[in-house]
Amino acid sequence: MTRENRRGxxxxxxxxxxxxxxxxxxxxxxxxDRAPIAPAPSAAGVLGATTYPLSLVDDDGRAVTxxxxxxxxxxxxxxxxxxxxxxxxxxxxxxxxxFCDYPEAAQSLPKIGGFKPNLEAIIGAQPDVVLAVRGFxxxxxxxxxxxxxxxxxxxxxxxxxxxxNVERVGDIGNAHDAxxxxxxSLRQRWDAVEAKAKGAAGRPRVLFEIDASYPGSIMAAxxxxxxxxxxxxxxxxxxxAPVAGGMQxxxxxxxxVLGLAPEMVILGDAPYGxxxxxxxxxxxxxxVPAVRDGRVVTLSQREVDVTSRPGPRIVDGLEAVAxxxxxxxxxxxDTSR
Length: 337
Fold this sequence. Notes:
By secondary structure, the chain is an alpha/beta fold. The chain has two domains: 3-35 and 200-336, Nitrogenase molybdenum iron protein domain (Rossmann fold); 54-174, Rossmann fold (3-Layer(aba) Sandwich). It contains 13 helices and twelve strands.
C-alpha cells in the first residue's frame, strides 16, 4: 500500500470506524473516563408513532422506502450501532461489524465482517433495514435492494448532522420519544461546554495528530472535522488550519509544524508507536511550544473513539477535549493526572 493510500485509509478510519487509534503505552497525561451513556429504555410503548411505509432521503441523497417497522436491524458501522442502542432499539440488532465494540452488548452480536462486509452474512441475518455509513459497497447496496432490503446511509458532516441522524434512526425504528430525549440532552451538553468556554482567556493553538508513521511529516485533523469543531467549541484554534489547503486530514511537514508553533499537541496515534517521548525526540520539535512547555497530551482508545465516531458519544469527545484544552474550567491540570 502506498503512503497516500495508507494515509487515506487512516483518515477514513478516524472519521467513520475509529478502531485503530488507541493508546497502549504509558503516558503522563490521559483523560479521565466519563461514565458511559446508558442505553435508552426499550422503544416499545413510546408516544410518537411512525407511519409506514416510511419514505426518506438518506445522507447520500438516496430515496429509501422502509415498508414496515423494522424488527431486525443490521448495523454496518460502530457509529450507527451506538445510535441504535442509545435510542432503545438494541434488542432489534441482528448483525454488526467486527469493529462495533460499544455498548458492551454489541460485542456478542453476530458479525457481518469488517472493512469488507459479507453480503451472505447480511442476508442471513434477515434484516428489515441496514444502517450504514458512506463507503458501504455500492454492489452490496444493489444486491440488497434487489432483495427488497432497504439500506440507509448515515453520514453526518457536523454535530447538527449527528443529531439529525439520531432523530432519523428514531423515525426508522418508531422510537421518537427516546430519540428526541437524547437529542435534547446532547444539544444541552454541547451548548453548556461552549458557554463555559467563553469565559476562558486566550485561544491556544492546538494540533491534533492522527499519524506520524512517516519521517518528516504528520497527518493532523484539519478544518471540517469533528475534532476541529470541538476545538472551536472550547475556544481553541486548530494549529494546522493555515496550511491545510482545504483538506480535512492534511499532511504537514515537520518544518511547517515548527512554523505553526502549536501550543498544545493531542496525540491520537499512540498505537503506531507514537508517545510523548517519541514526539519530543523528533528533529527540531524540542523548540515547539507544546513540547517545550510540557503540553503534549495522549488519548486512550475510548477517548479516540468518542472524538471521532459520529454518534451519541461525540459529546463525550467534546467534554474530553474541553478537559484537556481548558483544564482550569473543565478538569484538573495535565500534571495532576
